Amino acid sequence: MCGIVGYIGYREAVPVLIKGLEHLEYRGYDSAGVAFITQKTGHIHVIKQKGKLARLKEDLRDVHLTSSVGIGHTRWATHGQPSRANAHPHMDMAGQIALVHNGIIENYAALKKELQHQGMTFQSETDTEVAANLIGSYYRKGCLVEALQKAVKRLEGFFAFAVIAKEEPDKLVVFKRSNPLVIGIGRGENFVASDAPAIMPYTNRVVYLEDDEFAILTRQNVQIFSLKTGKRVKRKPTTIHWSIAQAAKGGYPHFMLKEIFEQPRVVEMILKTRLRKGKIIFEKLDSKIAERLKHTQRIHFVSCGTAYHAGLVGSYMLGECLRVPVTTTVSSEFRYGDPTVGKHDLVILITQSGETADTLAAMREAKNKGALTLAIVNVVGSTIAREADWVIYTYAGPEIGVASTKAYLAQLATLALFSIFMAQIHPKGKIGHTKIHSLLRDLSKLPLQITETLKLETKINACAKDLYSKRTFLYLGRGYNYPTALEGALKLKEITYAHAHGYPAGEMKHGPIALIDKNQPVICICPRTSHTYEKMLSNIEEIRARKGIVLSVATRGDHAVQKLSRYTFFITKTEEMFSAVLAAIPIQLFAYKVASLNGRDVDQPRNLAKSVTVE
Ligand code: F6R
Fold first, then answer.
1. In the prediction, which pLDDT does 2 show?
2. How many CB atoms lie under 10 A from the CB of residue 609?
3. What is residue 573's predicted lDDT score, i.e. its pLDDT?
4. Which pLDDT score, from 0 to 100, does residue 503 have?
5. Fewer CB within 10 Å: N-end or C-end of the chain?
6. Ligand 1 centroid, distance to 301 Cα (angstroms)
7. What ligand 1 atom has the least distance to the C-alpha of 352?
8. Residue 603 CB partners (closer than 8 Å, separation 6+)
9. What CA–CA distance (Å, rounded) separates 568 from 576?
């Protein structure tokens, strides 16, 4: 997500901050900035810019101010478009403090109102500026730490902060809740960053902050305190032995694997942001759009690739929640298919990048015909997000591996919430309170269940070692997990270059069964909660009868499926609606392991681009 850097020491601060930010560029960002206390005037100087660091560096070229304490940031937009005004650092209205922030402050809207009542005005749309003003409202000369302590006690959400105060030029104060912060220990200088690569050019002695800890950095010293007890925490520095490139991947060999392992946190973040006290919250839903949603007569999912598979899962979810016809079409077919849509239709565009050419054209076509367009997008401020009538962001953070993993899971979690929300507001909602309650309960268990599923890695590795030289794979599933079969096949073919085919299992007898012999691996997605479980079991029997190699994804404890399979990957029992979320994990890991064993360029497979902005 966003990147934080902070420095206090004897060097010129700004070049240290810029170099640190350069080492965080791989994470993706849409704007950048620095704030520093100038030695000459003692004021805080903020320079920030939309776009790449090169633009910020250009702005800095004519600034001849010296400073030895400062903070820097690369922003990946969550609240408000990418713009200079929304870029960090943010100052409080009185110009006393400057703040950089990673994460999301969930109760920022209520706090903003409160501060506005006190007469404060805001320059940006960000939650960060609200936090800056809250800290500022508590600030008294010499008491930055106390002001930060008071402020964070009032904030809800996930955040990491680095703050400087004009009146305290010999101090840099940082705080962490959920979002990472690492402190770099130097001699006569100290550093802080959201990610180790930013400080590794200077030191490899680091201390990781734990949740709800704050630290005071001076030139000579680093002191850590617990927010709860107020007591000092003693922690010995550890030494990083990785290279900067390895550290960028958090110790994982590839970004794809790192992103697969980020999925519990991504889903947790979505649920924490969108689900409050049993109520589903979507921002920017004005009354006009809410009214049109209630009168929707047909829903169309339109997207490409992995996002198309998310749309398919979404169509099953909406089908379970609403008595309204739902279709799913790939964008390139929709845009040229003269689609029959009008003012009572809702067209949902799903896209990680928000820039996919076919999806953009499909959205414009739907808008021209009078349909209501909803974009489910990861990249804030992207073209599709800006042009759609309504946007729901997926909060997956930047995805660097070309093969989509965490963005897909974020799309599924968002679609689950949206489907339940539609059941609540639409007159044709099909499910009542009890079912909604049980769905929300199971939904909130997903982050832990995803973590549990990730433990399959070792077993999947052994299975991949057995099968990585195979050149063709078949994936079968039904209902919610028919899209999982398609997604499994897509993941495998795009990063391993082996042929893989996903099929609805009910179609097996209509063709693909001819492929099956003792050399053919077939991955069967067969959760016990599926209403077509018995049918899937019969499919597996048929594959066995022809000596095919069965790999299954099954519900923990399902020995019937296990007995028929060479390898079984167990997932936790969950509502059928969420089985596709858990089943996605083993198929992602399997593709990853097969690709690595074949020595493929996992993060940048041949011929593929992360964002397909041409037809
Ligand atoms: C596959 C993959 C692609 C994208 C597709 C749509 O792993 O990443 O299939 O899903 O190109 O891209 P977005 O979601 O950016 O519209």
1. 84
2. 10
3. 97
4. 97
5. C
6. 15
7. 14
8. 254, 255, 256, 400, 401, 402
9. 19
Amino acid code (one letter) for 156? E
Query: Distance between CA 261 and CA 181 in Å, rounded?
Result: 18
Q: What is the pLDDT of residue 379?
A: 86
φ, ψ (nearest 5 deg) of residue 367: -65, -45
Q: Which residues contact 256 (CB under 8 A, 6 or more apart)?
A: 401, 403, 405, 495, 592, 602, 603
- pLDDT tens digits along 340-370: 999 999 999 999 999 999 999 999 999 999 9
Q: pTM score, two decimals?
A: 0.84
Q: What percent of the chain has pLDDT over 70?
A: 100
User: Which residues, in sequence order, are CB contacts of 438 under 8 Å at separation 6+?
Assistant: 575
Q: Label residue 8 exposed, middle or buried (CB < 10 Å: 0-12, 13-18, 19+).
A: buried
- From residue 193, alpha-carbon distances to 182, 265, 487, 599 in Å are 5, 20, 36, 33
Any atom of ligand 1 within 6 Å of the Cβ of 259 = no
Amino acid at 391: V
| Binding site membership of 307 for ligand 1 (Cβ less than 6 Å) | yes
Tell me the backbone φ, ψ of residue 20, rounded to 5 degrees. Answer: -60, -45
Instruction: Map residue 288 onto helix, strand or coil.
Output: helix
Structure-token pair, residue 317:
């979810």
Task: Report the percentage of the chain scoring pLDDT > 90.
Answer: 86
> Based on C-alpha coordinates, what's the Rg of the chain?
25
Inform me whether the pLDDT recorded for 286 exceeds 80.
yes
Question: Is the predicted pLDDT of residue 185 greater than 70, yes or no?
Answer: yes
531: number of Cβ within 10 Å:
10
Q: Distance, CA 11 to ligand 1 centroid (Å)?
A: 44
Residue 284 has pLDDT above 90, yes or no: no
- Ligand 1 proximity of 399 Cβ (cutoff 6 Å): no
Confidence of residue 1 (pLDDT cuts 50, 70, 90): low
User: How many alpha carbons fall within 13 Å on the CB side of residue 2?
Assistant: 31
Query: Is the C-beta atom of 588 inside 6 A of ligand 1?
Result: no
Contact in structure between 128 and 157 (CB atoms under 8 Å): no
Sequence-ordered list of residues with C-beta below 8 angstroms from that of 499, at least 6 positions apart, any chain: 471, 472, 473, 493
Q: Which of 19, 16, 13, 15 is nearest to 37 (CA)?
A: 13
CB 308 within 8 A of CB 328: yes
The rounded mean pLDDT for the chain is 95
Residue 540: pLDDT over 80: yes
Residue of 352, 484, 614 to mutate, ligand 1, most atoms within 8 A of C-beta = 352
Question: Which residue among 304, 313, 376 is best mutated to probe the pocket of ligand 1, counting the most ligand atoms within 8 A of its Cβ?
Answer: 304
The count of C-alpha atoms lying within 13 angstroms of the C-alpha of 8, restricted to the half-sphere facing its C-beta, is 23
210 vs 243 pLDDT, higher one: 210
Domains and CATH numbers, the chain: 3-247 (3.60.20.10), 257-444 (3.40.50.10490), 454-597 (3.40.50.10490)
End-to-end CA distance of the chain: 29
Gap from CA of 441 to ligand 1 centroid (Å):
30
Q: Which two tokens stand for residue 144?
A: 């930055």
Integer Cα distance of 322 and 320 in angstroms: 6
Helix H or strand E segment including 246: helix 244-248
